[in-house]
Amino acid sequence: MRALKTIVIVFCVLAWHAATAWADEVMLKNGDRLSGDILKMGEGILVLKTTYAGEVKIDWKDIQEITSKAPLKVQTLDGSVLQGVVTSPSAERIVVTSDQFGATMAIPFTNIQAINPPPNVTYSGAFNLAGVIAKGNSDSKAINASGLYTFRADRHRFSIEGKYNYGEQSKKINVRNALAQLKYDFFLTKRVFLDTFALFEQDTFQDLNLRSTFGAGPGYQFIDTKRTQLSGMLGLAYVNEDWRTRPHDSTAAGVWAITLNTALIPERLIFFHRQQGFYDFNAPNAWRLRADQGFRVPVYKQFAMNLEYDLRYDSNPAPGRKPTDHLFIVGVSYVLPE
Fold first, then answer.
1. Per-residue pLDDT tens for 183-212?
2. What domains appear along the chain, each with residue ranges and CATH number?
3. Are strands 45-50 and 54-59 parallel, antiparallel or unpaired?
């Protein structure tokens, strides 16, 4: 009987040592050591799941060292996210070690924003519609439809944009153009991102069947607050143009873009500006610009009045075409709730 009790005690001791050997450990500044699973840290509070007290919340300022047995995601103040096993080489510092990248330099506790942060998912968008129909002494109609949707999850940002314009005068079509654009931004840091995009344009009265543009380049998020978002990019693009009457052509091009959204008067008056320009390398002084800007005035719930001016410029238009197109739009917008 005594031998059986000894075996049970030894087994329990070994099991306890095995459990603690595979547990994360938190050492406090007062010398206490806590073991368990590090769940997360945010807003200055670390949450440790223990077998003896459930979830324990610890003030980040009271911690001296942490060690993890499993990989953790560590987010620094600049928005960068590191993933790997965490150790503390000295007080109030950690090193993140991964199989892919090895060990990082020691990171001070004061430079750590979060551990295992939840996915930061945001989205925004607006869908616009405008139209005019005139009968009687004049016979005309015009339709403008557009939309822009942006989805952001941590370091990834996706955007999709579409526009369509159609107009008739005395039953003869005098406006018909469209565009669609897909964009993907990968944030290397909180501010710096890599932008890639695919842009498709059609304009009957610019003699253009289809212009396909594929580009990429570095970008910078100058401002990213709830009230104002401002970003820009510079890069390179490949342009392929299919014309109705002139020869098909393609070229490499330089590209730039600027995007601005700001609440001039919060919840009352929104200003937006989206600019994208291209400089073709196969011809001298051949460049194009598309710029959409305007004001959005909230009217009722998610509906707003949209006052917009769109500019299109091509320094090398098709023969017999003008280089500049202007479009003035007064319509209704549906703005997605945040």
1. 999 999 889 999 999 999 999 989 999 999
2. 25-115 (no CATH), 121-335 (2.40.160.40)
3. antiparallel
